[in-house]
Protein: CHAT domain-containing protein
Organism: Cladonia borealis
Amino acid sequence: MTGELANQGLPTHFEGAIARSDELMLLGDYDAALATLESLETDSPCTIEQNREVLRAKARTWVARGYSQRAKECMRKACALSREKMNLQQILTLDVHAAFVTIVACGEELENGEVLCQARELPASMRALTSFSVEEIEAEGYLHRIAITRQTICQRKLMDVRPRIEERLRPFMCDTQRKNRYRDLWRLFGPFSVSCGDILTAEWLEDLLSGESRMPDIFRGLFRLELAKIYGRTGGLHDCSIQLTAAEAAFEICGHLHGALEVRKHRLHYGFTSPPDVLGALVKIMEEYCRMDCPLGVLQSASFPLAHAFEKGDHRLYVKLQEVLNDVCTVGGILHERLLLHLQLLASMNAGTGHYAQVMELGSALYREFCARKWWTPAFHVTVVLSIAETAGENHQSAQHWACEGYELCKRESLEAELQAEYHVAQIRSLEPIAAGPSKAVRLQEIISVIEPLVELDVNASNNQGACTKLCLMASLQFQLARLNRATPDVILAMAYGSLDRVYALCKSLEARERAVVTGECQELRIAQLLFEGKHESKNDKEEQALHIADNLIELYRSAGLGMQEANKYRMRAMCNLQMWQKRSNRDCLVAAEKDLQTACTKFRAASNSQAWLGSQHELTRIYVTAWEKYGLPLDPVLEELQKLESIADRLRRELSALNGLPALLQKQRFASTTSVVDLYKWASVVNLTAQRHAELWFWSQKRKARSLSDMLGLGIIMPSTVKQAMAADPKIELEFQKLLAAQSRLAAVSENERGFVREEIANLEGQLRPVAQFREYLDLRDGVFKGFKELEALNDASSISDRPRDVIFVDWILYGDKIVMLVVNSALRGDGVRLLHLTISVSDINRWLGRNFREDRDRRDCLREDSIEDQFCPMRELDPLISSLQQCTKPADLLIFSPTSCLNSLPLHALKIWDERCETGVPLIARNPVVYAPSISVLQLCLARSRTRESPKSAIFIGVYDRPQEAGTIYSQMDRLATSWNGRAACGVDVNKGSFSRLIDGVSLVHYHGHCVFSGDNILQQSLVLSSDNKDGGTATKPYVSTSADEGLPNILHASQKTLQRDDQQSATALENITNVDLRPIIDEVEQETILQLDSTAQTIMLTVEDIFALPLSSSPLVTLVACDSTTQTIATGDEPLGILTGLLCAGAASVVGASWPIPSRTGRMFSDAFYSELDNQKSFAASEHNDNKLVDIAVALQKAVLHIRNCKETSETYHWGAFSLWGSWLYKQ
């Protein structure tokens, strides 16, 4: 430094202090550099120009340290000072400096971009370097770094700035080198090295350092360190070690504070030093930079430990490091680094394939932010990650959406990645499953035709790695095409092997590790083809050939340190052995496959690759089930493998909760339908049923059912006071508990980009607190963990409010093949209370019955109206065997909990016939026993927990929305009357719209709705409660008529269907007087169907859909009563996963839901409401008179009596009227 100053003449005190601060900054002594600058401001008055120079020097120091926002503030102040004495060149260099800090250091954009356009007009001479000031040379470097940064975030075609930068800077660098202007060389080195690339930069550095005798030690150390980095990246490890040693010596002489750390970091990374824990040593370097308060040093030292943590499969440490870096970027104000780190985290989480929900949450947020900032290249990379994540989750339509989104983005913005995006679309399309046949062959040929020209482009551009990747995919598609083409398979196979031969030739130029990966992919394709050929030929040695290749691949990947690929090959070798066993029935092959899959599971688990772990465990469990069936393997090891498979599936399912609400439930239900999960519970049922382990059979049945729903409900469980008291007993545990509460509160406040870090912290804290018994019980309840007979004890306790002794009986139906068995579990008898009953009705019987009687609404209505307990020939009597056996193992008045399975969810089981000992005759089941429905016992427990921990009711809301004036008036009067009786309030008509509904129900403990519900089995998410439109200009809101009844009268028929009767309103009213005795039922039935179809056009303005209901604020765990058509009708997915309004209400926070399973007359609904609330009121009064302290009333009994009241009325005695009503969830309501 002193040599350069001497060449420029003797500096003033001010210039010397500025130069000294610059030297201290280069040495990494940022505190001293800033202190030197502070002393200039305080020791003597400074001119405006001097103040500006001090502020700029501070900005340089803050940028070097990693505090970009502080640098930006310094530049703001510098730019705000008077510019009267500045010429144009000085103004431009100042503005360019400010632009550099804003764009490159902070990752933001300029409000006014004109300054950069003006700055490009700086003198363009590249020869007369001496005519440039230090500030102008600095501005030159800043301009190039800005251009490179912008290109990094938006890499457009034909807009590569690197050649232009190299052309401009190379003469500068040579001239500066001749004049020994090392500080200026260092100012320009960053953009120069990026523009030249590693090879040319290494040559330039070698030339520079060959005559280093006059070079100051600080620059000798810095330049040698840069040369060492290039050698390390390009594989010259010997030369890298030599340069690191030379750099270390130079740093030691000049006293560089960070030099030794940088040298140690690279030695650790490249294996020149081998401590017991390399990763730990790298993390310690990050910690040292943290102690030095150097954010940029932390970021620059993080890439190596991140890479090591990822390769080691230490996901927890990886995320923790990312969290530290996120905090560092936030503190330093380094926005672009933070976002790019989030992109890196996104890709790494997706590589683990066990963090789908967090990938989608973070990825969606990043995509929105990148698009808003017009960072198009990172935005494209996000679409690639998201499409891969969706493919891994078997969401192929969403995967194609994201792939096409990225391709369209590249085309629109003319990005360099357009060809990459085109290939990625083809790759995603190739992974979509499609049934074998002509359409699949066409699809494969289309994808191949897209890939072929892309391969040639890569080859011409010497991008051999890209060409090899594409050729491998093309060969895979050609092999698939050959398997479909029975006419000329040899021709297509020759093309596939030709593609592989080309890969072998091209990959010779790749580095060893890349070559191993590419070669392995080729060999994997050969294995797959050999297995296919071996499967279709009885006598050959194809499997032995495949095994030999797999053995070699395992060794290849092991020697190359490719752990994930090695694990995959163990799994592939297991498939070879399994196929050999299938052909030869040789047990040794089955044992070999077992060992390979066990190894694969161990490796996938260590690498945190949960998806691959699940797949391997699924195959391993299949082997155990097969050995049990074929060779009599003992049951215990089979059950152990089933439990392992379930625990992995549970982990993946719970992770989906990060998506929140309806998206989480939909993804969980989709996951429940995957082969691994379906097979898990099928195998468990078959094993336990065959072994006559009835209790275990029930456990597995309940664990299978509605797991997604129990997860969602569990997230809303309030932490009981007993848990908080247990935490407070131990000061250390109390401290961790408070951290957990703080993290849970913080989760809702942080951005989507940072939620993953908070979730990781919560998971770690919960793991530390899990040993506390009370806290563990809370977690099990929240996570919907099935606890077996402990669940039954809770049911029995919950039933203790009854005024007479009764048992709680849980009834489950299990379908296996075409058979149905009923499991009846008495909560008071634990294991002794499990009975298995084989039913005489089959699954095919049920499906045929549904097709005849419940296929259309009219069929169902006719069936229910014709139903009669006494008539043995009416259709409903065919279903009685589903429940008639309950007479053997239950008593009248026992509380029955029904958990229907599959197609049984469509049936009114409580309306079927059973023998009643009290009157010695057949009666509807609901007349003998109160009935509660629950998707599973875990869901029921969560609902009971809500109702029992609910605070005392705050209020009730009674809502009525109806479109027929006469009936609407009656309904609204009833709402007012009920609201008065229950000390609540009523809201009716135009007061109830989408905007007001959420406010009306917020915080209440009882919600009653009387109105219309629209149900469509084709799109259950559009099942809706009909509200008033937002029109409040008086009168009834305008909306189409929706009938809930066939006997509501004719005026609305005329309003609804102009096709039926072409009359105006006045004529319609007159016509009614003359035709009141005419049978209009056929016309009414037709109009009802037409009316439903007319709703779609206004659904967005007057419908409260399932998606809306998921977001309702039911924080007080209310009882919700829906007097509306089909309000408890749901679609049932694989795993008995329900979805509909009922599911939405439970997920939103409801503890109990009462509703109707089919369209009912409004008048019947009013009768039910009066009877239901009257019975609840009677129970409240009885509890008060008996001084009942628990303040709980029995909803199930109230519903039973209300239903029987309707049934006992002559005009509503048909099953069509009373059989629709059912209770789901908790049967308790807190007064």
Confidence is low (pLDDT under 50) at residues 1-9, 123-130, 1032-1101.
